[in-house]
Amino acid sequence: MAEIPDDEYILKTTSACAGCSIPLCLRYITKAAGPDTVLVIPACCTSVIQGLYPNTAVNIPIYNVAFASAAAVASGMSEAFRAAGKKTNVICFGGDGGTVDIGIQALSGALERGTDFLYICYDNEAYSNTGMQRSGATPLGAATTTTPTGKKEFKKDLDAIVNAHNPVYMATACSAYPVDLYNKVEKALSIPGPKFMHILAPCPPGWRYPSDKTVALGKLAVQSGMWVLYERENGKMSLTGASKAAAKKRIPVEDYLKAQGRFKTATKENVAELQQMVENNFKRIEKEVEGIC
Amino acid sequence: MYEIRLHSRGGQGGVTAAKILAHAASLDGKYSTATPLYGAERRGAPVVSFIRLDDKPIKVYSQVRNPDLVIVLDPGIMNMVDVLQGMKEGGEVLINSPNKPEMNGHRVYNIDLTGIALSLDLVVAGNPILNTPLLGALAKVGLVSRESVKKAISAAFSDERNATAALKAYEELVI
Amino acid sequence: MLNVGTGNKAVALAARDARPGVVAAYPITPQTEIVEEIANQVGAGNLDARYIPVESEHSAMAACIGVAATGTRTFTATSSHGLVYMCEMLHWAAGARLPIVMANANRALGPGWNIGSEHSDSLSMRDSGWLQVYASTVQEAYDATIIAFRIAENENVLLPVMINLDGFLLTHITQAFESVDPSGYLPDINTPHAIDINNPGGYGTLTANTEHFKFRHDIMKGMKNSVPIIERAEEEFAKQFGRKYGMTEDYMAEDAEVIIIAMGTLGKEMEVAVDKLREEGIKAGSVRVRWFRPFPDLKEKFEGKDLIVIDRDYSFGFGGILANELRAKTCCDPYSVIAGLGGQDVTYDDIAVFVRDRKPGEEFWFGVSE
Questions:
Q1: Chain C residues inside the 8 Å CB shell of A106
Q2: Domain total for chain C?
Q3: What is the DSSP letter of A226?
Q4: CATH code, C101
């Protein structure tokens, strides 16, 4: 197990919702990154969580920017730091809306240009900051304020899109497994070039579950295979942590869905389709891990 | 102020010729401007450039309406464009042609720029280079000095055949 | 050093001579030559800068924001749809008080597609907190770009500056111009609020309605401060390099009874019209507005004169934008001429006709109105 530093960069004064997984993620990300780091934040829950001017709950520089612009701002920042001979980590930390939807062009551009930065998408599967509207990352069957009868489409495969850019390192994580998250951030930042991480970040008000169940929900997601922990280094994929076990034996997807209010509208067909999606996904992953595709 | 309108086709180097002419004139100590008139630019389409020369700063940016000199790099263009439109009384024409056509009584200088370019194998992407021999011809007409033309050409192109082409045109043009 | 080149080339060489650390840009007609020339200068080793070939104009300005946030000098260029596409980030750059310098090739907005000159692009960004200057010659485009860095980076301004040049008319015209070594004119950039990992803070943090207006008030002060700073920067430029500029360029305006007002290349062409009108016995003069933001104080200059304003732009539902600004700032009611939209050709003869046929208080669309 990794030595997690005692240093704290996320102070105990965030304005997050009770039970929010995001400060937990930020805490471990900043512990792994250390103080020579700038966070670039597009419009997202973290715009609020960091605190209200003149206060900040983040003890490293945190640069807030417009919704669609995070990866591009990070591009400029990274080039400027490198031009000045500085090694300062530039980490974008954006929600799923700012990444899979409005921010995907800037992300694609920054990845393609080989920008030396780490882009982290924390995915709570909706526009949570504006009160739970659907995003491209909302799963099939989930009710949001703009899909009151449940989303009719599958979640956008962000990782496949990012993978098509051949980043030097990409990984998934989940707030329920902070050590796995810590290790991946640490590894990502040790490699120059474009890195990407995708973190599942359960959201109590949005997913409609009790605030004390955030870690339990994350675990259910991974144990059911609805979320897979892996990393891909120079194109080579490997499963990590609890997903190694989930690859062999999983709990039914329904166990994960029924723990949340947002899937109340999901039909039997939705549940079956999601279960099938998980099965197909693992078949594909198995082949990739074995190097067959 | 002396005003020139240059007719060419996209890819013939008319726009570059206008720039080099403006450069050469400024080396002579004159004020000069060169402006391409852009539409949807594409290879082979008619293109117009404007050049102005003066002893005092040039403040005019609008199109040349009444040219003192019209240059025609491609005589075929005359089937599509009235190259003599708005010509000043006493205005002159310089045309890339081995023959001297009659042009409404205007004085016509003719010179086979294409022939000069081909004789030196001065061809880029299938197009004979017309702009550098043109500069030689314009020096002969007396718009710019030979020395300035030579300098402006060498600033624009490293291939020495361009200067040779200009010299050849200077010698061939009959005034 | 004497150069002969286009307005675009002059801007690119000025950007080179100002020594930015990072340039981020996206091509668009008629500005593309700036982007290409800077890439050439970096490639040839004449400019020791990093060049970010971004995937859009929105990202161009976003990247410049990232660069400037670290306290590094930066530059970009755009035009028309590119400028409007980066609109959101223009506001962000000014709000974040970042001294970014940008050239804008003034071009019409579609539909239909038109690449000709028009000021509607930059004037629609007039309230974004950017300083705006309009050039009329290749030399002025070069000089204004150098001067812009000095003004933007002044600690009492710290606002971005946009240098505007008429698409094609100025971006593509070849003229002689002198380039300079501005190292003694431009001090090293020193951004007081640059990101400092030893002094971490939140930038652009959520700001409540009890605080937000204070930041807007600060921008207002920066813009106000810029007036004497522009004057000093231009005086110092004249002292070092011999070329003098001002908030406006006036031509035979002092004893004039009728004054023509315009921006950009029309502001030069109209001087030829003034000469023609004077020959006819009409006491004409002209005032070319160079700085549109901050807007010059022209009240005294225009007192009791007949004014003709030529707008290469329009605010639908209100009128010519420059004419409107003058109405608001001087209480004059000019003859408002809308001319040159989308590269419409306007000659000095046309301008002389505007003056002869002027109807104070009325609006005239060149080529449309009877």
A1: 55-56, 58-59, 62
A2: 2
A3: S
A4: 3.40.50.970
ipTM of the complex: 0.96
User: Is residue C67 within 8 Å of C127, Cβ to Cβ?
Assistant: no
**Is the pLDDT assigned to residue A1 strictly greater than 60?**
no
- For residue C202, tell me if it sits in a domain: no
Distance (Å) from the C-alpha of residue C251 to the closest C-alpha of chain B?
Answer: 12
A68 interface with C at CB cutoff 8 Å: yes
Where are any strands of DSSP class E within chain C? Answer: 2-6, 22-24, 50-52, 74-79, 101-106, 131-134, 161-166, 174-178, 202-203, 248-251, 258-262, 284-289, 291-293, 306-311, 335-338, 363-365
Chains B and C touch (3+ CB pairs under 8 A): yes
The whole-number pLDDT of residue C331 equals 83
C234 and C261 inside one domain: no
Candidate CATH numbers 3.40.390.10, 1.10.10.60, 3.30.420.40, 3.40.920.10; the one for domain B2-172: 3.40.920.10
List of chain C residues whose C-beta atoms are within 8 Å of the C-beta of residue B35: 168-169, 172-174
- Asked whether residue C237 is assigned to any structural domain, the reply reads yes
| 8 Å CB contact between C132 and C356 | no
Output the six-digit token pair for C28: 């668009």
Contact A97, A127 (CB under 8 A): yes
pLDDT range class, residue B41, cuts 50, 70, 90: low
Rounded to an integer, what distance in angstroms lies between the CA atom of residue C76 and that of residue B64? 33
pLDDT tens across C68-86, in order? 999 999 999 999 999 999 9
Contact flag A61-C64 (C-beta cutoff 8 Å): no
Match 């002025």 to its residue by tokens.
C140
**Distance set, CA A140 to CA A150, A224, C274, C342 (Å):** 7, 15, 71, 49
- Show the domains of chain A with their CATH numbers: 22-289 (3.40.50.970)
Do chain B and A touch: 3 or more Cβ pairs under 8 angstroms?
Answer: no
- Residue pLDDT, tens place only, A223-239: 999 999 999 998 899 99
* Cross-chain residue pair B61–C348, CB shorter than 8 Å: no
Specify whether C219 is located in the same domain as C270: no
Instruction: Tell me if C65 and A76 make a contact (CB, 8 A cut-off).
Output: yes
Closest residue in C to B40 (Cα–Cα): C115
Phi then psi for residue C213, to 5 deg, are -65, -25
Same domain, C216 and C274: no
Q: What average pLDDT is seen over chain A? A: 97
Say which CATH number the domain at C357 has.
3.40.50.920
A281 min Cα distance to partner chain C (Å) = 32
3-state secondary structure of C187: coil
Q: Which domain holds residue C9?
A: 2-177+208-241
Question: Chain B: residue nearest C166 by CA?
Answer: B61
Chain A positions in Cβ-Cβ contact with residue C65 (cut-off 8 Å): 65, 69, 73, 76
Strands A230-233 and A169-174: antiparallel
Q: Are residues C272 and C300 in the same domain?
A: yes
> Are residues C254 and C126 part of one domain?
no
Q: How far is CA A159 from CA A94, A120, C195, C227, in A?
A: 15, 12, 31, 51
Same domain for C62 and C80: yes
Kindly state whether A59 is in contact with chain C, defined as any CB-CB distance less than 8 angstroms: yes
Structure tokens at C310: 């030529």
B62, B135, B144, B151: best to mutate for the C interface, most C CBs within 10 A:
B62
pLDDT of residue C347 exceeding 60: yes
Query: Which of C90, C205, C211, C218 is the mutation pick for testing A, counting most A CBs within 10 A?
Result: C205
| Residue-range domain boundaries for chain B | 2-172
Q: Are residues C22 and C158 in the same domain?
A: yes
The partner residue sitting opposite A106, judged by closest CB among C59, C69, C72, is: C59
CB proximity A46 to C under 8 Å: no
Whether residue B32 contacts residue C10, with contact meaning beta carbons closer than 8 Å, is answered with no
Residues of C in contact with A112 (CB under 8 A): 55
